[in-house]
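Changelog entry: the Oxygen sensor histidine kinase NreB record was regenerated in this release. Current contents:
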Amino acid sequence: MAGARGAQPVTGGTPGWFLPGAEERPDDSGAERTEFWRRALAGWDVAFYVLLAISAVSIVTVADTFPPDGATWAALGGLTVLLAAYVLVGRRGAQRGDLRLTRAYLVVLVLVVSLCSGVSTIGSILLFVGFSQVWFFAASLREGVVASVVLAVASCVTIAGGAFASGERPTTGDLVVLAAQMSVGLIFSLALGMWITRVAERSEERAELLERLEATQAALAASHHAAGVVAERERMAQEIHDTLAQGFTSVVMLAQTAQAQIEVGRPEQAADRLAQIEQVARDNLAEARALVAAFGPAALADATLAEALVRLGERFRAETGVQVEVVLADVGDASRDTEVVLLRAAQEALANVRKHAGARRVLLRLQREDGAVALEVLDDGQGLAPGTAEGVGLRGMRDRVAAGGGTLDVAGEPGRGTRVRLAMPLGTRTRDGDGTA
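Regenerated structure tokens:
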């Protein structure tokens, strides 16, 4: 089929219905197109053999002599040559995408059909085969048009020449009728060939568009997967920082304190620190298991947010000696996601107090404000120096709050303590859980 662009011939050019080369079949879509071309070639095989058989039967039937005369044998011989050329040259060229073979077959086709038409009017039956075959083997629309015109003109010349050679004297009117008949056949062939070519081109365009679309979808899916991996890695890093890392920090500080107490002869107090180390380690183990199982914070597994905040304050006081006041209000139907953000923020704020503030007192306050729940952590420590950069923990806190549609404010002055305040809309869905909107 002229103009179809699915093939890559061995020697150059782009035959119409040829099978795509191996380099055009790198994936499943290319394999599907290859299978389509194979089925198309099989269909043309059937069409060619059927037309050839009909032509042979017609030649024998129309002949009025028995045994067949020379003209009949010539026509049948032409069919035989055409069949051999198709099997050995034309079809092989179509399978390989080899323009040398396909064009060689077109030359044989034009010669055989035109010569058989000139030998006998019976041979002109082969024109049906010739015109259809031209559009199968033509490498382009232009080549198909040229081959069809050459076949029509050559057949006219050989038919007229055969008439003169046999002693007939065709009149001008006879030649005009011959030219008109051949023109009708040519026009029909060109129209049909152009229509089929256009259909093939559109099919190829759709196939190429589909392949590009599938490639784009695959690239988009890969991009989304990569983005998901990065987001999950960031989430896990933040979870580890907010839970395990803080717990290990507590273990280190408690161990250092216990060591100092042992050195000054206070074994009872050192034993208390060891008990605290054991409890922190157990809590860290629970958090690690929750992370592996993709659950929420272990502190919220069997407790409300208020209870978890009270425990957090008591543990902080026991580990650091800093007085912690926890003021809690009824926040109503705060979602699971909101509770996770608030608890993680409280943990991070107290961790910063432990590491940086040098405070003696901390106020942890939870309250409800106009459809939002607010958490404040205030300390009386050394405050924030101008230009103090935010650490990983505070940046992670901002990300959590922003993901839930909340706000975060951190303020402080040197020597006057620090205030961390965040507000989260009630019922917010965030990346940490399955809260309800």
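The domain at 303-429 is CATH 3.30.565.10 (Heat Shock Protein 90).
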